[in-house]
Amino acid sequence: MSNLNTAISQLETEWKALVLRWEETQKVWTDLVRRDFEKEYWEVLAPQPPAVQREMERLAQVIAGARRSVK
């Protein structure tokens, strides 16, 4: 279970770092290619890590409940 909690925490940390880097990149990459990249890749990717994190947290709760019921 601690591995799952570690993975959740790591996902959150790495996602926040990537978002910060993207925000910095947007300041200097201002052409149409960036806008195309943003539309095709970033906008598709952006909702996924938070959704995965929520599902991993739900899974951790289910596992914890199952462990309690087995004891």
Order of helices and strands: HHH
Q: Compute the CA-based radius of gyration.
A: 17 Å
Overall mean pLDDT? 95
Query: How many individual helices?
Result: 3
Note the gap between the termini. Answer: 15 Å
Proportion of residues in β-strands: under 5%
Main beta-sheet strand count, sense and barrel state: none
Supply database-style keywords.
single chain, 71 residues, mainly alpha
How would you describe what is shown here?
The protein is mainly α and 71 residues long. The protein is built from three helices and no strands. It has helices spanning 2-28, 32-45, 48-70. Helix 1 runs antiparallel to helix 3. The protein is elongated. The chain starts with a helix and ends with a helix. The model has no long low-confidence stretch (mean pLDDT 95).
